[in-house]
């Protein structure tokens, strides 16, 4: 049974698609936000810790998709890690609910320097549809410093990949 | 006459509540209603508050009748239903948190969604100012020798939603699991108040990201029921098409993820491919991978037109590949070793909690909102509702597998009979003659989603309540994990796949 999957993969070749390339707008935002010293130390491989700060779960679904056979995030040297203590990058979603604010701050503090924060989705930019709610802080940058925004509701995996590749390219350029 | 109809007849009937009746009752009927629930003669569909009243939706399972009863609480209290019927407890804690209405006699009076960080108490009621420092939360104790605690969350190791799990463990075995939720509370019902229908539909579509279609549909159907709108036939069928695509995508994701939590990554890889194909097809047909905002009151916002041919291709591909994956699941003993007999949910508990979706159907409860109360076009379609009674992780996987097969067959029927014509009807939500109320029950991939709303005379939302199926599934996860080893928790949890955001609102 498992052999048949293996044989098929050999015969048909991989599903993985070519890199969509770095996003220009993301590169420009990073150039504004990130200093040279951090770029030198991060290099071309980044460990990512995802933090859901109260999203609807839509962004998480598309972040998950980055690991499927079509996008195969790990081939670029990007990987998800289980602890902020192992992370270079925090990938934060959601309008930052007040009930998650402290957890987000503590996760940020637990992440060693140098570290970058990527805010994913329209909610993470400014609270999105939930801004103005008694229960939301509204926008990740009101709680912790943000280096890059990837917009969308949710952003497609391609859009996510282009933003993350910009981060990688930018960090690599400093070394 | 049914017990529910009998009870409702003794109350004061409310006009303009559709499609099921609502009556305002006195204390005596309220207590009778909670006894009907505790005696399993009726099922609890929902329990929600507003400024000075509490509403309870019930299903008479003998006759399939649905009704809503309301008790007015002028002194800010009502008799706790949870006192005799535990499934109501978390809903009542929420009513207290949001509206400040006190369920008298409730066995658990701890706050639920309110963590003491909003800066306000009863935000949808009296709105009393409050510090934001956070409240202490006292977990239920477990006593005995050699017990230790494991605290997990709200930030988890994987890419999942926020919530806290407190385990009391003896060696490897879980003695007690307690959930603490509310971290994803965004105040959706607060934002709904005063919104127009278009904004309300968008908020509904963002209540639980994996159920954008189910929530969009439940909201639209509730609004249409309130206003007495009939949507074009093509829209009705396209809605079902989207709902079944959503079910497929989520079930593929779940089957893969459950197997991955038993360290069988091949299944995750293969199911991930099928899921991606479904999402890409949805994107081609409806312009959005998760089909968000594609259902709106009055119809659908996108007509796939020629994209239907892509759905045909998708079905051919799925029919070719999915049977291989079923064989793979069925013939991998090391995987079955983890899933068979783990996390058993007893049928009595599923019945007591009126638990829907694959969790209920894997434990003998055959409820499916597409059948009961049913809604078009499913009355014109052939499908089966698979049911098992073993209640373990394996049964929940098999229910999903069988539902994938049913959804593929449903999509084939839908695209074969898709009516031509308009996809959206113009309507004016403003009505001269007072407020109108509507309610809908829709079968999402996870179970039945309930939406109840009241529109004011200018067509704006006065109150909208959205009840996720997870409300009646989360408490059962605590029950099924007892006696299992800690290492099987991710597996059991994923086999339930409850929504955090849909629950926390």
Terminal CA distance of chain B reads: 37 Å
**If you consult CATH, what is the topology of the largest domain in chain B?**
Cytochrome-c3 Hydrogenase, chain B
Shape of chain A: globular
What is the percentage of strand-forming residues of chain A? 5-15%
The overall pLDDT average of chain A reads 89
The whole-number mean of residue pLDDT values of chain B reads: 95
What is the molecular shape of chain B? globular
Following the backbone from N to C, one meets helices and strands of chain A in this order, namely HHHEHEEHEHEH
CATH homologous group name of the largest domain in chain B: Cytochrome-c3 Hydrogenase, chain B
> What share of residues of chain B is helical?
25-40%
- The helix count of chain A comes to 7
For the secondary structure, the number of strands of chain B is 18
Largest sheet of chain A: 5 strands, parallel
Which pair of chains has the greatest number of interface residues, and how are they split between the two chains?
Answer: A-B, 49 and 57 residues
List the strand order in the largest sheet of chain A.
2-1-3-4-5
Oligomer: heterodimer
Radius of gyration of chain A: 17 Å
CATH class of the largest domain in chain B: Mainly Alpha
Percent strand of chain B:
15-25%
Protein topology:
The complex is a heterodimer of chains A (175) and B (505).
Chain A: H1 2-12, H2 24-33, H3 36-42, E1 46-52, H4 58-65, E2 78-80, E3 89-93, H5 98-110, E4 116-120, H6 122-126, E5 148-150, H7 157-173
Parallel strand pairs in A: 1-2, 1-3, 3-4, 4-5
Helix pairs in contact in A: 2-7, 3-7
Chain B: H1 3-9, E1 12-13, E2 17-18, E3 22-25, H2 27-38, E4 43-50, E5 53-60, E6 65-72, E7 77-79, H3 89-99, E8 102-104, E9 120-121, E10 128-129, E11 147-152, E12 164-170, E13 173-180, H4 188-192, H5 197-205, H6 212-227, H7 233-260, H8 265-286, E14 295-296, E15 299-300, H9 308-330, H10 333-339, H11 347-352, H12 357-361, H13 370-374, H14 393-417, E16 436-443, E17 448-455, E18 461-467, H15 474-481, H16 489-496, H17 501-504
Parallel strand pairs in B: 2-16, 3-6, 7-8
Antiparallel strand pairs in B: 1-3, 4-5, 5-6, 9-10, 11-12, 12-13, 14-15, 16-17, 17-18
């Amino acid at each position: 049974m498992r052999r048949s999957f293996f044989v098929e993969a050999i015969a048909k070749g991989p599903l993985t698609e070519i890199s969509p390339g770095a996003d220009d707008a993301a590169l420009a935002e990073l150039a504004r936000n990130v200093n040279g010293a951090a770029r030198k130390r991060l290099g071309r491989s980044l460990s990512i810790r995802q933090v859901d700060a109260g999203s609807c779960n839509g962004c998480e679904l598309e972040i998950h998709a980055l690991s499927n056979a079509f996008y195969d995030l790990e081939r670029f040297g990007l990987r998800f890690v289980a602890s902020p203590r192992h992370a270079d990058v925090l990938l934060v979603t959601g309008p930052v609910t007040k009930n998650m604010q402290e957890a987000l701050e503590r996760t940020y503090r637990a992440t060693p320097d140098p570290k970058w924060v990527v805010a994913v989705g329209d909610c993470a930019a400014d609270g999105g549809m939930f801004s103005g709610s008694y229960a939301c802080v509204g926008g990740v940058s009101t709680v912790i410093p943000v280096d890059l925004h990837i917009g969308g509701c949710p952003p497609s995996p391609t859009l996510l990949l282009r933003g993350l590749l910009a981060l990688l390219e930018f960090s690599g350029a400093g070394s | 006459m049914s017990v529910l109809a009998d009870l409702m007849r003794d109350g004061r009937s409310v006009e303009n509540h559709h499609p099921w009746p609502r009556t305002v009752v006195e204390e005596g009927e309220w207590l009778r209603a909670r006894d009907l629930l505790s005696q399993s003669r009726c099922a609890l569909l929902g329990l929600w508050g507003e400024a000075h009243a509490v509403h309870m939706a019930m299903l008479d399972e003998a006759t399939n009748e649905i009704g809503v009863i309301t008790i007015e609480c002028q002194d800010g209290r009502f008799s706790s239903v949870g006192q005799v019927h535990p499934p109501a407890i978390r809903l009542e804690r929420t009513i207290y948190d949001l509206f400040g209405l006190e369920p008298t006699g409730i066995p658990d009076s701890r706050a639920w969604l309110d963590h003491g960080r909003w800066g306000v108490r009863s935000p949808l009621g009296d709105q009393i100012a409050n510090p934001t420092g956070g409240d202490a939360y006292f977990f239920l104790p477990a006593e005995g020798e050699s017990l230790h605690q494991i605290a997990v969350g709200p930030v988890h190791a994987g890419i999942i939603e926020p919530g806290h799990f407190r385990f009391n463990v003896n060696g490897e075995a879980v003695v007690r699991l307690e959930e603490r939720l509310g971290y994803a509370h965004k105040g959706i019902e607060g934002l709904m108040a005063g919104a127009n229908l278009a904004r309300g539909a968008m908020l509904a579509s963002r209540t639980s990201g994996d159920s954008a279609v189910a929530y969009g549909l439940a909201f639209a159907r509730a609004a249409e029921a309130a206003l007495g709108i009939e949507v074009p036939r093509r829209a009705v069928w396209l809605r079902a098409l989207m709902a079944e695509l959503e079910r497929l995508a989520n079930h593929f994701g779940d089957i893969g993820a459950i197997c991955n939590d038993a360290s069988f990554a091949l299944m995750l890889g293969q199911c991930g491919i099928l899921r991606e194909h479904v999402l890409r097809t949805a994107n081609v047909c409806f312009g959005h991978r998760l089909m968000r905002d594609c259902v709106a009151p009055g119809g659908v916002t996108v007509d796939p037109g020629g994209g239907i041919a892509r759905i045909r291709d998708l079905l051919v591909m799925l029919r070719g590949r999915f049977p291989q994956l079923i064989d793979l699941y069925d013939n991998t003993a090391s995987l079955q070793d983890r899933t068979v007999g783990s996390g058993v949910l007893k049928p009595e508990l599923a019945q007591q909690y009126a638990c829907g979706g694959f969790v209920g159907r894997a434990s003998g409860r055959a409820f499916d909102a597409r059948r009961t109360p049913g809604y078009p076009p499913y009355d014109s379609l052939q499908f089966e509702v698979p049911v098992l009674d073993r209640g373990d992780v394996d049964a929940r996987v098999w229910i999903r597998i069988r539902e994938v097969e049913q959804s593929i067959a449903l999509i084939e029927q839908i695209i074969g009979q898709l009516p031509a014509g308009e996809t959206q009807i113009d309507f004016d939500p403003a009505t001269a003659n007072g407020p109108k109320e509507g309610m809908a029950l829709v079968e999402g991939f996870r179970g039945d989603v309930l939406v109840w709303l009241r529109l004011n005379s200018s067509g704006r939302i006065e109150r909208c309540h959205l009840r996720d199926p997870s409300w009646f599934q989360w408490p059962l996860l605590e029950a099924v994990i007892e006696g299992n080893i800690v290492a099987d928790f991710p597996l059991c949890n994923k086999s339930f796949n409850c929504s955090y955001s849909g629950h926390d609102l």
